Amino acid sequence: MSKVATLPGEPSSPVQKVWKPELYKIQLDAPAPQPVRCQRTLPLPAAGSAVAVATDADVDAVEDKNQAMRLYGSEYHGVMGHLEAEQLLSNASDGSYLVRRSPKSDGYYTLSVRFNKRTKHFKVFYKQGHGHYLREQDKHYETVHEMVADGLINFHMQLYASPIIQQINQQTKNCYQQSPYMTLNRRKLRALSNELGKGTVDNCDAVATAAPAPATATAEIPSENQQIDQQATQQQQQQQQQLPATDPMPLVYEKPHNFKVHTFKGLNWCEFCANFLWGFTAQGVKCEACGFMAHNKCSELVPPKCVPDLKCIRGVFGTDLTTMVQLHQCSIPFVVRRCVEEVEARGMLQEGIYRVSGFADEIDALKLALDRDGDKTDMSEAAYGNVNVIAGTLKLYLRLLPVPLITFQAYPSFMAAGRNAKPTEQLQLMAEAVRRLPPAHHSCLQYMLEHLKRVASHYAVNKMNEHNLATVFAPTLIATPQHMTNLTEEIFMLSSLITHCETIFASSSAS
Hints:
alpha+beta
């Protein structure tokens, strides 16, 4: 019998949130790089030195200045000692930086950066075709601005995220079964495992058919090699019997991952520990064969069970919204659009729509189909007769977003607006909060709220008014802490958003 998806706090959600937002929220507070522009005219060789009689030193000085200006622009301050640099940056905000040439430098420049009310100094080098770097074995950057941005994030994470990073470093291989990789791909891995198993059986049958054992009148005594083979087979069978039922891949399947350092575009999370891949460049590693993404430290704990075929069906669930719309060149993800269209076609009069759970295995099957077939997925009534499965899949997609529709940055503004008791001011503040959303989140939230308002218009039949819908969707659409259980204010705010969505988004667009 199919199992109905249930979850404390939101009965109709098939899974808990799999991504951990803490590192992402800490990175949001990291200072941004702010170049300190040079306001003085950099000195050239001494006055009166004609070009025709310029010394080699003069020529070298001019060339050095020109090269520095090409590499660093107006944040290059020429020859400057560290005391003068510290005095210049003493009143600057965190993130301020400049590039200078130390009086006794030999083939390098110095980057001075302000962080945590202190000035840090670094030797910085540049190599054609390789970019800017501090040490040859360190990361390389196209611009110094990128180097400073990445460095500030790393300083900030070391200062404020060390307990979480320490937890990541203390993980064990036992975390793999509860990892996002397994949570999101368990059904796919099981299907691919079955195919691998069939292939193994077919190969064994073919070998047995091609080379049958000779018939003998008496039983043969097993040789030493045969006894060893039999013992190995028995050990493998015992290992498979001891393997947890949750592991969809056979223990005997082994293929090492091919992890390479990778610069991820957009926002990405580690598929082993569920934490954010922080930084701007070389944030982690990625398996070139199957696409597994992880922190470098986490990749050391990933078992050698690379499934290259999985790369073709990694899909859209659990992918950052902005990354998704940029990849597919759309304003609304096809999963949201297709599910909303199907619900509006045959679920508007369904009593308890979005509140009543679909069957977990059917939702999982539709998720797999959407990941595999994309926009071409058959979601008709013939394929999925229970419209609650469609509704549950939509909520699952929204719940698996690493950054919710109402983002961490915008959440305080939305809540402050909801607490305002004056209706006119409340709508104005909500319009301002909406403008804080990234474009992808703005468009998708508007699309969802307008859909939910149309669902609520059939309340007399489906029993789902704005408040009931807000109760169901608040844990899904809003960036609430996982330990928070009282969502009264969030539900009230979301209910107001649904009720007045046309006015709020019209005001947002007009401003």
